[in-house]
Description:
With 297 residues, this protein is of the alpha+beta class. It folds into two domains: 8-129 and 285-296, Diaminopimelate Epimerase, Chain A, domain 1 (Roll), CATH 3.10.310; 136-275, Roll (Diaminopimelate Epimerase, Chain A, domain 1). It has helices spanning 39-49, 87-100, 142-148, 175-179, 185-191, 242-254; strands spanning 8-16, 25-31, 54-58, 71-77, 82-83, 107-112, 115-122, 125-131, 136-137, 153-159, 164-169, 199-205, 222-228, 233-236, 258-263, 269-275, 280-285, 287-296. The protein is globular, with a radius of gyration of 19 Å. The two termini are 16 Å apart. The mean pLDDT is 95. It comes from Branchiostoma floridae (Florida lancelet).
Amino acid sequence: MADPDVKKLPIFQVDAFTDKPFAGNPAAVCLLEDMDLTEEHQQKIAAEMNLSETAYLRKLNPGDDFSSSSKFGLRWFTPTNEVALCGHATLASAATLFYMMKNPSSQLTFQTLSGDLFARREGDFISLDLPENKSQPQVQTYTLIIVVGDLPVQDLFVSHTAKKLVVRLQDGTTRSTLESLRPDTASMLAAHTQDIIRGVIVTVKGSLENGCVDNHGEMCDFISRYFAPWNGIPEDPVTGSAHTVLASYWAKELGKTEFYARQCSARGGDLKVRLREDGRVDVAGKATVVLQGMIRI
Length: 297
C-alpha cells in the first residue's frame, strides 16, 4: 500500500564534462517541482547520494515549467555542506533540462549564491557563463607540502573569492607525475583550519613532450587535479569552478584567453575555457545522463 506521507522527487544522475557514461564528474540533479524542500532535507539527500555535489532546481514563479521556462533557482550541496559555486553540477542541471525535460530554450538562467549563471547550447557542448575568480601570489604553506611532497613548484597563488589554492608544478612535469599524486587528505584538513582555502588545484603547463594530450592526441594548454577535503570531497573528478580560477591565472602566463584543458582524475574530463573581457569565464563541456528515477523522502 502506498504511504500518503511519502513524498517523491524526480532525480537524475549526470556525468558532466564527458560524452561517455562513467567518466567525467557525476552530479545528482533534483527537480523540486512545487515542493518546498527544507535545507535539512537537501543536505540529507546530498549525503545519501554521496556524490561531490547534488543540485536542486526550483521554479521561481507560479506557472513556470521545467520543460519550457528559461529561468530557475539553483543550489548545490556536497555530502557535508552547501557551496556557493559548482560548475559541473550546473552543467548537469542544464543537461537535465535540455536533454531529459526537452526544454527548447537556447539559454538558461540560474539564480544562485554566486549571482545569475547562464548555460547555453553550443553544438554538442553546453557552455556555462561563470564569474572569474582572480588569484594572488601566496607564500609557501604546510598544506602545499602535504599535497605535492617534494615535487618542484613553480608558482603558488590563492583565490580569496573562490577559497582555492593554486599550485603550479614546474614546467616539464609530466602528466603521469600529476596523475600519481596521492595527497593525505586527513593531514590537509588538520593543517588548515582557518577557512581561507576550501580546495587545492594542482596544475601543469601543457606540451606534447610532457604528455598533456587528450584521448585523441590533441594537446591541452594545461592540465590539473583538484582536492577539496574541506568540502567532504577528497578529489573532485572535473571541476568547473576551479577553471574560473585557472582561466585567470593561465591567461597571464600564456598570453591568451581561450584554452583547451583536461582534469586528470581517474575519471577525467575535457573542458573548453574562455576568459572574457567582462570578468566572466565561459566553461564548456559535454554531458551524459546515466540515471533517472524518483527519490522518496
